[in-house]
Amino acid sequence: VYFKKNVVLNDPAYKITTDSLLYNTQSQTARFIAQTLIKDSSGRTIETKEGFYNIGTGKAEFGGRPIIKDGKLTITANKIINDDSTGISQARGNVIIIDTVQKTTILAGEVYRDNKNDRILATRKPLMIIKQDNDSIYVTADTLFSARLSDLYTSKDSLTKDTIKGIKVVDVKTDKKSSDSTNRYFEAYRNVRIFSDSMQAISDSMFYSFRDSTFRLFQKPVVWSKESQITGDTIYMFTKNKKADKLEVFENSFMVNRIDPEVYNQVKATRMDGYFKEGQLDSIRAAGLAETIYYGKETLEKVVFRSNVSGTIWPMKLKDPKEMRLTNFIWLEDRRPKTKFDLFD
Predict the structure, then answer these.
(1) DSSP 301
(2) Which of 25, 139, 169, 272 could cross-link to 249 by cystine, CB 3.0-4.6 Å?
(3) Largest CA distance in the chain
(4) Residue of 224, 130, 223, 248 lying closest to 185 (CA atoms)
(5) CB atoms near residue 156 (< 10 Å)
(6) pLDDT tens for residues 163-199?
(7) pLDDT above 90: residue 84
(8) 78, 198, 338 from 137: Cα distances, Å
(9) Separation CA 3–CA 116 (nearest Å)
(10) In DSSP terms, which residues pair with 96 in a beta bridge?
(11) Cα gap 133→136, rounded to integer Å
């Protein structure tokens, strides 16, 4: 059947409004050939120019840059394939997902979404933007995955009592505000790169919780802030009001601060804590087999040594700065993303 002009298709689960529609009564498939608006019983809307929807199976395909608005999410892509029976959808080509609650945007070549469990997997150069007033955070990796924090648990008891990687999670059934705004995390895998105006970082993998606003960087992580570089086996980067607030560096901690070409202040220790002021690295505390090389210039306001301290003071003219290196010194400026456009280089 070919319907034209002011077409309305009412189904218990959907209402379809369009100018023109092809409907196959045998397969129960509606094919869209003009601008079409679909609204389901949950309030989700779909705007599309082409595609089809099988009323019997719940399978659908939308083309022509369709737009899906599903609660807090707005999804736009070149093509979206949806299966209501499984709750799985696939978006392809210049995908844009905007989350108005978390204030995040995901850009990717391909995105899979589990609609029933509110999980998202983004691939093909995915990029997540955590919106801030003046210094948004950009995160990219080979793969990005986002889901509800509460889904990391298997029972209501563990939801209120246990912790995951140091994150306390509340019962989202009794805390609606938390459910909306903080009951979420995302993970990044392989070639993780982070950029903001005040801080940049790289690592192999990452875990971020909206509950405590902390980036957990794993496997050869590096963090930069202005002229300072920090490395270690694992780095926790705490943010406050979406600005860098504190760093915790575990095992093989190493901080390098460049003060001139080939001239570096250095601090090395087992454990290191860094503190930020107004989003900029302000001070470092090192503990466990701590070593340091620093130059007595105005770049340092105060240095405090504790417990069995020994050292040597050299006149600068007697030492070549290139020789002043602690064991395992490395300067990785060439791997640092300088702008958000460098994230895919």
Answers:
(1) S
(2) 272
(3) 92
(4) 130
(5) 12
(6) 444 454 444 444 444 455 688 899 999 999 999 888 8
(7) no
(8) 26, 9, 13
(9) 33
(10) 76, 107
(11) 7
What the block records as the tokens of 203 is 């690592």
179: left (phi over 0), alpha (psi -120 to 50) or beta: alpha
With contact defined as beta carbons under 8 Å apart, do 165 and 152 qualify? Answer: no
Predicted structure pTM score: 0.83
Q: How far apart are CA 166 and CA 148, in angstroms?
A: 16
Which tokens hold the place of 320? 């070549």
Query: Is residue 281 a contact partner of residue 226, using CB atoms and an 8 Å limit?
Result: yes
Q: Contact 107/341 with Cβ under 8 angstroms?
A: no
- The amino acid that residue 258 corresponds to is R
In terms of C-beta density within 10 A (0-12 exposed, 13-18 middle, 19 or more buried), how is residue 236 classed? buried
pLDDT tens digits, one per residue of 111-143: 999 988 889 999 999 999 988 777 789 999 999
Q: Which of 237, 220, 321 is nearest to 275 (CA)?
A: 237
Closest among 142, 168, 138, 143 to 153, alpha carbons compared:
168
CB 203 within 8 A of CB 193: no
Cα–Cα dist 36/207, whole Å: 39
Closest to 284 (Cα-Cα) out of 248, 260, 313 = 248
Q: Which tokens belong to 175? A: 């805390």
In sequence order, the β-bridge partners of residue 81 are 61, 90
State which amino acid sits at residue 221: P
Q: Tell me the two tokens of residue 155.
A: 């029972």
Mean pLDDT of the chain: 86
Torsional sign, CA 203, 204, 207, 210: positive
CB 22 within 8 A of CB 31: yes
